[in-house]
Amino acid sequence: MLMPSAKADTLVLPELEVQASREFFFVKDNKTYRLDSFRRQWYGNNHLGDLLQYSSFVHINNYGMGASSTFSIRGTADDQSAVLWNGINIRSLSLGSTDVSIIPVHEQDQISVITNSASSIYGSGTFGGAILINNAANWNNRFTLNGKYDFGNFNSHKGDLSLAAGNEKIQFQTYGTYHKATNNFRYYDAYKPGQPLSVLQHNALENLASISNLFWRPTGKTLIQAGSWTQQKYKEIPAIMGGSPVSSKWQEDFTTKNYFYLQQQTRKGVWYNRAALVYDRQLYSDSLFGIDASYAMYKLTNSINYRHYFKNRVILDAGADYYYDRAKITNYHSIVNEHRAGLFAGVKYNKKEWTFSASVRQEIHRYRYFRPLFSAEIVYNHPSGRIQTGINYADKYRIPDLNDKYWQPGGNPELRPENGWTLEWNQQFELLPLHHKHQLQFSYSGYYTRIKDNIVWTPLTATLWSPRNVKNTQHTGIEARLSNMLQATATIRIHTSILYHYNHSTVTKDYNPLSEGNFIRYKPQHSLKINTSLEDRNFMLGFNYNYISARFTDEENNPFYALKAYHLLDMFIGFKLSYKSFTPQFQFQVNNLLNTRYETIRSYAQPLRNFQIRILFNYSTPKSKKND
Amino acid sequence: MIRKNILLLTALSVFTLISCKKEESNFSFDGTYIESGAAIVVNEGSFGSNNGSASFISRNGQVSNNIFEAANGGDVLGDVFQSYSRVGNTGICVVNNSQKIVLVDARTFKYLATISDATKITYPRYAVAKDTSRLYVSNGSGTGTVLAIDLKTKTIAKTIAVGSGPEQMAILGNQLFVANSGGFGVDSTISVISLTTETVTNTVKVGDMPTKIVKDAQNNLWILCYGATDYSNWPDINKLTPTKLVKLNTSTLSVEKSFTLVPANSPSYNANLCIGDAGQTLYYSVGDEVFAMSIAATTLPEEPLISGREFYGLNANPFNGELVATYAPSFTQSGYVLRYSSTGTLRDSLRVGIGPNAVIFN
């Protein structure tokens, strides 16, 4: 809310809104799901994919333990949703998708899932939504040191170390992680007669990453932030089920992402400027097929916007984005250079319980004209603060990936962008009051998304494939969440959350008429996730349950090739001690307690019951009283 | 413009196929898949998806898909079902990307055994049987081998080094002829193996990338040499060296005839070869045209028998002279078997599994 000040010509700008980047500012009044630190602590141990799989509506497909993982929001494809790290879209330029298995998660991260993600705000490729990973300064922190050592089945050893230090003017955070595992887990081979118990081979991984952020506010109105993320991952790729366990494939990924962010508050507004440079390199080798493929890509992103706070509760936000992409990929004719830009403007208006917002974006690209993209939202907050209702509409688009345009042979530079829109309705109820010993929340969202001109690689001849805009899809569904927190005693707290997602994603038009009306491959109709935990001062016990319904794996929905529904149950238990500023913890986690045999991608083995043991320590020096 | 025409053609082909297809619903299994004039369709499936499958086409054109799954409680055949052959009542299924050979009862398609040895069966392609006790499997995407398999013990008895990327094979008398395609490299030879000693006795140079091999009525071999990828224009690698049809005299082990089907530097296309009319007539396809040629011909035919469709596989029905072709619109959807009269008139199209590459007659 805007706070008129005593002086008629000045405004006191609301700190939370000022701090919110454009990506947050236009969604903060409506449904945004932020992953809590408790989930991050338990499931962030491996990567973002693991975390999302258990604690959000996001559906994860992965190629087995430690292998690459893609995600799907609301039944859309893996390249139709985005992941943004401190405002930078980190998707692969060549494939368009984001491998969430190479994104480390740390308690310093704020992770949010945005579903009402208008392309006018987020740019290309957010039909399903966007996952935002942000780092923010804790200005009250003086010194914090966290360490974690995790070991488990399959020779898995992982160590994390993080440090945060500073004062109310400057804060520095750094985080490093190293993970090594052979991942030679046991599984039942569903594609061999008798489904024999087998051991996966050639599945080792080695991952090293560091993320650092510096926050500086030289004055109360200026914030300067800079960050760097560097990571190297080597991963052996095992054979699929059904055949010989021998494989000669491996992949190595290297990335460095760097950004600079400046936020300058003026008398009635705020300037935001962000510049980022991303370099990604990947090597893929398969000696059996004689493949040694490499790619290297640079992405330069610049974004500037100004947000003005008018006296009449109107807020205007306008700016421009500029992107430069450069790719050197074995199968492209030459080095690819692309420039594109976007102009956007948004307005938000608050009146009592109502918030209206709208935005428009004009994409500027040399190869094609884009029509303006619009979004609009209305949110109503009941005066009691216990009911919120919102409805929003958003235009969306996705620019073809570089592979789609430049891959040789077959790349098609004449492709149109995918385009569509989403209509969403959501409501949230505080069934029991906030700040009470018993909190009960219920929320649900209904959505409808249409996507036209989906890009599909199809054969032009028996040996030549090329991408074409030949498919339309629609995605309908309901997401419902029930969250309960009971403060049973002064120290005992019980959390339970139940997430149910119904999704009906179908093909409405295709070059293959036999797939029209069918379900989209790998999209479950039903998923149910139940998380429950009991926390005492020094003790934690929790269970996570995950149900995913059957999924078709081919376009014609042949039941012979469908993946069966599965149930997964994980258990975790932890003990914590406190000695002055030092807090050691011991955690024990059992994954797949029920020993379920399951697949998320056809033919790729998943581990049976396995264990993790974790030792953590935390040392923190609180803010001194004189600074309060 | 060419691209648009190809798109239009592809779309028309799919619609035409669907409009005249026969469904499998009227099929009734009478206890055996071994039936004169009936055939097994090899459906590769999509790479990495373990959905290779077999379809059965009865002599009167009824289709049953997923016959292995149906006979084995839903178990699947594997990843990239490459080829099928039969020796007695045993069906030999070569499953390429699963690196295994699956033996089934050819009458019922019930599973019998799997032959797998990760160190030796690395990239299996085709199998031919000398008799009910000896099977030969071409193997390798680079360095090539022929695996001599003892069908009694179901083990690899001997590994015979041949050229690169061995593909189809033929047995003539006591000799095994192996087309060395080069795999992911280049080769242009035929290895000749003595079945007595199981050693390579000769290597004959033919055209680049020999892949298909058929035996004619005079006990000579005809070899389709697909042409090798021309890397001289890198990174434009969509060009090939000439595609050739070569006649190999199996007595003198010399190339007796060589026809250039497609000149060098033509864009990539698909090509097939089969033989019918009791070994008297060759059928070959290049791109979207199918030609018929007598084995006695001295020049290539000018007029195609069939045109307008590019096929993934081609065969002639030895029982009624029909020509059958497979069509794979993509590798994520059903394929089709098209049946033509010997004069090239389309009779019907049958919907089968994903990526059909061959129709094998009983």
Walk me through what this model shows:
The complex is a heterodimer of chains A (628) and B (362). Chain A is mostly beta strands and 628 residues long. Chain A has a single domain, classed as Maltoporin, Chain A. Helix content of chain A is 5%, strand content 56%. In chain A, the strands form 5 sheets. Chain A has a 22-stranded antiparallel β-barrel. In chain A, strands 3-8-9-6-7 form a 5-stranded mixed β-sheet, with no helix packed on it. The longest helix of chain A has 8 residues, at 48-55. The relative contact order of chain A is 0.12. Chain B has 362 residues and is mainly beta. Helices cover 6% and strands 48% of the residues of chain B. Chain B has helices spanning 2-19, 67-71, and strands at residues 21-22, 39-43, 53-57, 63-64, 81-87, 90-95, 100-105, 111-115, 124-131, 134-139, 143-150, 155-164, 166-172, 175-180, 189-194, 199-205, 210-215, 221-225, 243-249, 254-262, 271-276, 281-286, 289-294, 306-307, 313-316, 323-327, 334-340, 346-354, 356-361. Chain B has a 5-stranded mixed β-sheet. In chain B, strand 13 and strand 14 (175-180) form a beta hairpin. The termini of chain B are far apart. Classes of the chains: A mainly beta (628), B mainly beta (362). The interface between A and B is large, with 44 and 60 residues.
